[in-house]
Amino acid sequence: MSESAEGRIRLGISSCLLGNRVRYDGGHKLDTYLRDVLGTYVDYVAVCPEVEVGLPIPREALRLVARPDGEVRLVFSRSGGDITEPMRDWARRRVAELEQEQLDGFIFKAKSPSSGMERVKLYDGSGMPRKQGVGLFAGIFMEHFPLLPVEEDGRLNDAGLRENFIASIFTLQRLRHSLAQQPGLGTLVAFHSRHKLLLLSRSPQLYRELGRLVATAASAPFEDAFARYRVLLLKALKTRPTVKKHINVLQHILGYFKQYLSADEKQEALELIEQYRAGLVPLIVPVTLLNHFVRKYDNAYLRQQVYLQPHPRELKLLNHV
């Protein structure tokens, strides 16, 4: 993965997660993994809705309140001052500006009344909270970019969610970067060829749809074909892989070596796949053996498959799924 400016991921993020002191109490919520580990590969676009809308630091805390008619308002928790409309107006302008950033995804601050993507406290008329709210900015962002990969810091503690999100943003970065270097159908075909098995691990149905689209793309203007491809790709990336789908891909890869493997090599591979199915070893174990076979038997098609290394090894993401 290139670490040049052109080859880096473009990721929106809640500013406090980078250690910026923008929270209502003048503090931050630094996530060292996001800043120091994932940040090695990412150019972040930091956003703090409350500061950018014009509120001071420190400031009175905000909360989401549901009116009797069901409308959700953003209000100050003590004074009750309502800033819903200023926040909505700012958020709509901000998401339009973010279109120019060519983002590959966004990481929100969990539980925030402006930036939480789910389960934010939503208070009723009696002052009782339910974890059913969506932060005002986060909701407008997700409505504006409905298929873009998004997560929040709390959910990223789940190993499966973290791996899927990071695989998705690396995939979108590769697509964006390759087409920026050499736009055209040939580049899209090459990208699709490299990502076939990754797509199969997400959604066999969308894998087939994307294959048909690429096969007939020459009959339409490239811009139209690319727009349809990107929508289907984003839908596929939003579909989480499962153990069953991973096993399907692992067995598919193993099939490429049936005429080369000794009986012992084949048995070892099948045993490791079964151990992965049973939860005894993580995905990295059978993948490492298959990568060994790719190198030993020099399979050109599999050597280019992103599935076998969807993100830098240093992130160790396949060690935990």
Automatic annotation (TrEMBL):
InterPro entries the UniProt entry points to: 2-thiour_desulf, DUF1722, UCP037004
Source species of the chain: Desulfuromonas thiophila
Protein name: Uncharacterized conserved protein YbgA, DUF1722 family
Domain DUF1722 as annotated: residue spans: 196-312
One Pfam family, short name: 2-thiour_desulf
UniProt superkingdom: Bacteria
